[in-house]
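Field reference: sequence -> structure
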Amino acid sequence: MQMTRVDSRVCFIVSLLSVGILVDSSILLGFGHFMGQYSTMATQAERRAQTREKLLNAAKTLFEEQGFEATLIDQVIKLANVAKGTFYQHFDSKLEILIALEREAGRGKTREALAAIESGAPALPILASYLESLAEWFTGREKIAEAMILSSLSRMGDETTHHPELSGRGFIHAVLKAAQRQGTIREDADAWELTGMVGGFITSAVLYWSRDPQASQLSELLERSLKLFLEGAQTKEVTR
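Structure field:
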């Protein structure tokens, strides 16, 4: 009888250990399954990024060789060696891929400008330089100027529009915010509200200029618009 009780206890302990092993095994199996899924997801993300890069490189090559207007989406697809449907998984149009290229090309300069401000450089001259660069970029591209503006407006709700390195709107906000800290822009106005005003006069100037580029210089329109904006936005100490 004593032996039977011992056997029962041993059996009970063994059964508990077995359950524990099964539970641990299930956890490990589950974790292994999760890691397998994660690895697959990571691989898919990497492949998607590589495909996007191929499309960007192909478009950049063709734009440089034959110009934006002359380049066809089918040519980009052929050079990138992807399916037509793959292109539209990444970009809605040829214009969107141009915007992506320009955004990437400008990130270095944007980063440098923001670093200069952080090091103490006056913010407002950097804003003026940004508008000069914008005018220079649009010059010769008046045919797509309106489409560029409309595309920019359609992305207003996009999270990237708040990032100073990924959008003009985000960059302008960062510069105006810095100008407020430096005491050259009044602080009683919200920086995003001021950003909207700057974006508004940029939009108006570009659209007005693009209808008849020979009648005026975009750089002059933007310079005049910035001057009028600053007359209301600068602090009294600066305007004196």
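Note: Confidence is low (pLDDT under 50) at residues 1-6, 8-29.
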